[in-house]
């Protein structure tokens, strides 16, 4: 069975089926104002009790919670007390006369649907957080006793539709050797917690996973994203050998933390991390990262009922800068719109949201929002090596307009006598084909490029990667996509522009030598992926990488290209 390998490693064990009961609306309506007031009061109490339960988990000594666990629990408290969720539930109680249970179920379902339909994988994964928080509050509403934490036998592999953040944190995983779920993505909490605990995990396996029964023999291959159910003995023997080899390799990768990513013939490559807040910074350094190639700023704007003020944004960027150890941090300006809605920002409903009113297009249209963010980033730039990156650029006019607004932000700060880095570096994301094709023109306007392969691939191939019927056509190794990437790197270097990549392709081991051969300067990825990519770089040389690049560019199909690259990897 094929899924998404999100935590590397190999697990061999017995299945334990983790089941959850889905919440169902009663349809019972309230008949008086007194009942409405009672339901609102009952909902408030449930919120307080849910927060109290999480606070109790945080202080539970037996759990030995990691920093990642505590960060997840803090996020849950923020979501439980989120004013938007609360106001939406109360509105349904008051206006629609729904009881608190039904109102909560409907509001949570709406939020989950909103997040699941976003294009950004990280934001999609947050839908699981919201669903879990809804379940926590609902348990308090119905007075359900706290579920006993299951006891697992040695070599247990947990099989589930999905595993909630609260489950992954409170369960005793000392005997758990693997996770496999029907739902989930690379940025889901199952992935995050599994990685932090070093437990192999495969997610996104689909409904077929539901056929597994308790105590079935299961192999979880978190490296290749494979699940084996009741495999033959020869497969078990083969994976037992592979597991031993992986554990040896894992030790080697950990030893690379402080070693620079230099090829055998002396070419230095920068390996950076994609992060969402300051808490992710330490994880980047622990894995040998040399800075941040992408700081997403969207989370700062989510889960609230109004735009963050300049000071709120400044404090967010300042903390990131202070924790950066003076390593470069590329801050992407807000990338919302179309598919990423803010509850307090009335964006139009669009027929083609991926091609619509979003990212830099909103920023140039809503100069007030843009200049506030730019001033906050500029103010924080005195605390670290911050750089500014504009997303969704399609032409040179957009860059010039954005730069003009940046100059206005600088002028306002000068007038206010507020310190900032006047020479802050400016870059753009290359994620639209027109930008990749005109990279020679755009390069004259900025200091660096960062190739966003996720959207570049989607737009180049006209494939909605969230559409299951055509997602197989989404292929970064398509010759058309590779030619665009090659052109961006070539034109960037001709114009003395540093070229990085922050899309999923940067963390794909199969693409590493090809991108090296193209001349990519900076690979930015999830922190956990850095050691593996570094290992490939330090074991190879540029001559080999260039030969691979030359061979690939003469091929006419992604099938031939991927087969060749797999052969090279072996």
Description:
The protein has two domains: 1-231, Phosphohistidine domain (Glucose Oxidase, domain 1, 3-Layer(bba) Sandwich); 270-569, TIM Barrel (Alpha-Beta Barrel). The chain is built from 21 helices and 15 strands. The chain has helices at residues 33-58, 67-80, 83-95, 100-116, 121-142, 165-170, 189-197, 233-254, 279-286, 310-322, 360-365, 367-380, 396-415, 433-437, 439-442, 453-461, 479-494, 509-518, 530-538, 542-552, 558-569, and strands at 4-7, 10-18, 156-160, 176-181, 201-203, 217-221, 226-229, 270-275, 292-295, 329-332, 386-390, 426-430, 448-451, 498-501, 522-525. Strands 8-9-10-11-12-13-14-15 form an eight-stranded parallel β-barrel, surrounded by five helices. Helix 1 runs antiparallel to helix 2, helix 3 packs across helix 4 (100-116) and helix 18 (509-518) packs across helix 19 (530-538).
Question: What share of residues is helical?
Answer: 40-55%
Basic shape: globular
Beta-strand portion reads: 5-15%
Output the structural class: alpha/beta
Cα radius of gyration in angstroms: 25 Å
Q: At CATH's second level, what is the architecture of the largest domain?
A: Alpha-Beta Barrel
- The tally of structural domains comes to 2
Text of the CATH class of the largest domain = Alpha Beta
Per DSSP E runs of 2 or more residues, the count of β-strands stands at 15
- Nearest-integer average pLDDT: 89
How would a crystallographer describe the biggest sheet?
8 strands, parallel, barrel
CATH topology annotation of the largest domain? TIM Barrel
- The CATH superfamily name of the largest domain is Phosphoenolpyruvate-binding domains
- Across the major sheet, the strand order is 8-9-10-11-12-13-14-15
What is the count of DSSP helices, taking H or I runs of 4+ residues?
21
């Amino acid at each position: 069975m094929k899924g998404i390998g999100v935590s590397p490693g190999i697990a061999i064990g017995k299945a334990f089926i983790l089941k959850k009961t889905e919440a169902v609306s009663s349809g019972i309506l309230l008949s008086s104002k007194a009942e409405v007031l009672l339901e609102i009061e009952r909902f408030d109490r449930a919120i307080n009790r849910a927060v109290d339960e999480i606070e109790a988990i945080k202080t539970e000594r037996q759990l030995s919670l990691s920093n990642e666990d505590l960060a997840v629990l803090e996020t849950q408290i923020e979501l439980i007390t989120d004013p938007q969720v609360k106001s939406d539930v109360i509105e349904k109680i008051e206006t629609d006369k729904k009881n608190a249970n039904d109102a909560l179920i409907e509001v949570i379902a709406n939020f989950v649907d909103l997040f699941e339909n976003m294009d950004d994988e990280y934001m999609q994964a947050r839908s699981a957080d919201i669903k879990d928080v809804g379940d926590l509050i609902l348990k308090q509403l119905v007075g359900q006793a706290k579920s006993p934490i299951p006891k697992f036998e040695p070599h247990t592999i947990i099989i589930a539709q999905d595993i909630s953040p609260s489950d992954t944190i409170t369960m005793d995983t000392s005997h758990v050797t693997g996770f496999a779920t029907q739902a989930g993505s690379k940025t889901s909490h199952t992935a995050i917690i599994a990685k932090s605990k070093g437990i192999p995990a495969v997610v996104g396996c689909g409904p077929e996973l539901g056929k597994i029964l308790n105590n079935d023999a299961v192999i979880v291959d978190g490296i290749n994203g494979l699940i084996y159910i009741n495999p033959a003995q020869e497969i078990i023997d083969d994976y037992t050998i592979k597991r031993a080899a992986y554990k040896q390799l894992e030790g080697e990768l950990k030893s690379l933390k402080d070693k620079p990513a230099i090829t055998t013939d002396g070419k230095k490559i920068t390996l950076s991390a994609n992060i969402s807040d300051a808490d992710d910074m330490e994880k980047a350094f622990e894995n040998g990262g040399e800075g941040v190639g992408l700081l997403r700023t969207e989370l700062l704007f989510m889960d609230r009922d109004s735009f963050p003020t300049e000071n709120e944004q400044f404090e967010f960027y300042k903390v990131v800068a202070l924790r950066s150890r003076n390593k470069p941090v590329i801050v992407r300006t807000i990338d919302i719109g179309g598919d990423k809605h803010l509850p307090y920002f009335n964006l139009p409903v669009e027929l083609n949201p991926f091609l619509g009113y979003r990212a830099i297009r909103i920023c140039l249209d809503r100069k007030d929002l843009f200049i506030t963010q730019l001033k906050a980033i500029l103010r924080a730039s005195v605390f670290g090596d911050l750089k500014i990156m504009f997303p969704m650029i399609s032409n040179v006019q957009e860059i010039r307009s954005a730069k003009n607004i940046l100059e206005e932000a600088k002028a306002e700060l000068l007038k206010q006598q507020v310190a900032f880095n006047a020479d802050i570096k400016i870059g753009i994301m290359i994620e639209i084909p027109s930008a990749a094709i005109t990279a020679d023109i755009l390069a004259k306007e900025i200091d660096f490029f960062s190739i966003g392969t996720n959207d570049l691939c989607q737009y180049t191939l006209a494939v909605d990667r969230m559409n299951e019927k055509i997602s197989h056509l989404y292929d970064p190794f398509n010759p058309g996509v590779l030619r665009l990437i090659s052109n961006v790197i070539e034109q960037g270097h001709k114009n003395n522009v540093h070229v990085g990549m922050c899309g999923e392709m940067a963390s794909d081991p199969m693409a590493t030598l090809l991108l090296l051969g193209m001349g990519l300067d900076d690979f930015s990825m999830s922190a956990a992926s850095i050691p593996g990519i570094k290992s490939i770089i330090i074991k190879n040389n540029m001559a080999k990488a260039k030969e691979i690049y030359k061979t690939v560019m003469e091929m006419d199909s992604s099938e031939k290209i991927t087969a060749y690259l797999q052969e090279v990897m072996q």
